[in-house]
Amino acid sequence: MGKTPVKSKKKRSTTPYVVAEHLRTPEEMAAYLDAWLEEAPEDATGIARALGDIARAKGMAQVAKDAGLSRESLYRALGSNGNPSFATVLKVARALGVRLHADAA
Predict the structure, then answer these.
(1) pLDDT at residue 5, rounded to an integer
(2) What average pLDDT does this structure show over 29-39?
(3) Which is nearest to 53 in space by CA: 89, 84, 22, 16?
(4) How far apart, in whole angstroms, are the C-alpha atoms of residue 94 and residue 87?
(5) 20 to 30 A from 87, CA-CA: which of 12, 23, 69, 100?
(6) Which residue in 71, 72, 85, 78 sits closest to 46, CA to CA?
(7) Rounded to two decimals, what is the model's pTM?
């Protein structure tokens, strides 16, 4: 009886998908935020994270400066455990060059 050859298992390497790397234009950034607002309007954490993704795409230091916030506080507010005030959200949106809008439900 011959031995069956053992197939070597190759480890697959994956890299995380970083949304900020794919938001290149103001239109793409606005569409991304709009999708969050449309699809998950109750998900404050997700919307804050989307603002964080856009801020990273534009450059967190510049967005923090334009919003009148420290870079560290901006990272905290828009991070996965962040809970930014509405005033912070408005400052960041203005610094990002995006507008929030409302439609009748």
Answers:
(1) 65
(2) 94
(3) 22
(4) 11
(5) 23
(6) 78
(7) 0.81
